[in-house]
Amino acid sequence: MKRLGVLTVISGFSGVGKGTIVKKLVAEQDYALSISATSRLPREGEVHGREYFFLTRDEFHSMIESNGLIEWAEYVNNFYGTPKSYVEERLANGQDVILEIEPQGALKVKEQYPEAVLIFVVPPTAGELENRLVGRGTEEAGVIAKRLKRAAEETEYIANYEYIVVNDDLNDAVNDIHYIIQAASHKRERTEEFLNVLKDDLKKSFNE
């Protein structure tokens, strides 16, 4: 039975560990990870075309103008967006695709792909979120403060998500998201074409 792949959007506060969750999902399961484009500079160890497509602001604007992005948003003075062709090719081939993007972008994806599954990852406590941001050791106190303020603002978006996953234990969070995606892949709407053929065959064969 051929089906379209499940498009899953994973969002969460900066520092909640969603990137680690996504990497583990992709490493352990047959998921395609959509690589986002961004205008921010790479962090130590990040590689162009692996973590992100690192673009200049001018290059990013060119992609917007050519309609090459499913969505895009500005976050902490940098642009982030989702290239369209990669995602649509994988879905058409039946592969499940994961997008790791901010809430603003997630809502834009949902507008274009109503069947997309939206998952928001949260920390067990606000204090733990701050500890994780500080523990990364990649940003100054002022940037961390901006990220925490942004997290407080992003709580307003949570009501738009179908599923909430608490990242208290990494393996539990990964398993929870995997089960959500697998359940979504069996929704009736995704098997409509197959069911129509099956119903026709049954009626022709046994409804005489």
Written description of the protein model:
By secondary structure, this protein is an alpha/beta fold. The protein has a domain at 7-34 and 95-206: P-loop containing nucleotide triphosphate hydrolases (Rossmann fold, 3-Layer(aba) Sandwich), CATH 3.40.50. 46% of the residues lie in helices and 21% in strands. The protein has 8 helices and 9 strands. It has helices at 18-28, 57-65, 84-92, 103-112, 126-136, 141-154, 170-185, 192-206, and strands at residues 7-12, 31-33, 36-38, 52-54, 69-75, 78-83, 96-100, 117-122, 163-166. It has a 5-stranded parallel beta sheet, sandwiched between helices. Strands 4-3-6-5 form a 4-stranded mixed beta sheet. It is globular. The protein starts with 6 loop residues before the first strand and ends with a helix.
Summarize the SSE layout with pairings.
Blueprint: E1 7-12, H1 18-28, E2 31-33, E3 36-38, E4 52-54, H2 57-65, E5 69-75, E6 78-83, H3 84-92, E7 96-100, H4 103-112, E8 117-122, H5 126-136, H6 141-154, E9 163-166, H7 170-185, H8 192-206
Parallel strand pairs: 1-7, 1-8, 2-7, 3-4, 8-9
Antiparallel strand pairs: 3-6, 5-6
Helix pairs in contact: 1-7
Radius of gyration over C-alpha positions, nearest whole angstrom? 19 Å
Strand runs, count? 9
Q: Name the helix and strand elements from N-terminus to C-terminus, one letter apiece.
A: EHEEEHEEHEHEHHEHH
Quaternary organisation: single chain
Structural class: alpha/beta
* Major sheet attributes: 5 strands, parallel
The CATH architecture classification of the domain at 7-34 and 95-206 is 3-Layer(aba) Sandwich
User: What is the CATH third-level topology name of the domain at 7-34 and 95-206?
Assistant: Rossmann fold
Q: Can you give the mean pLDDT?
A: 90
Global outline? globular
Helical proportion, percent range: 40-55%
Widest beta sheet: strand line-up:
2-7-1-8-9
CATH class of the domain at 7-34 and 95-206: Alpha Beta
Determine the number of helices (DSSP H or I, runs of at least 4 residues).
8
Low-confidence stretches: none
Cα(first) to Cα(last) distance is: 26 Å
- Taken as a percent bin, the fraction of beta residues is 15-25%
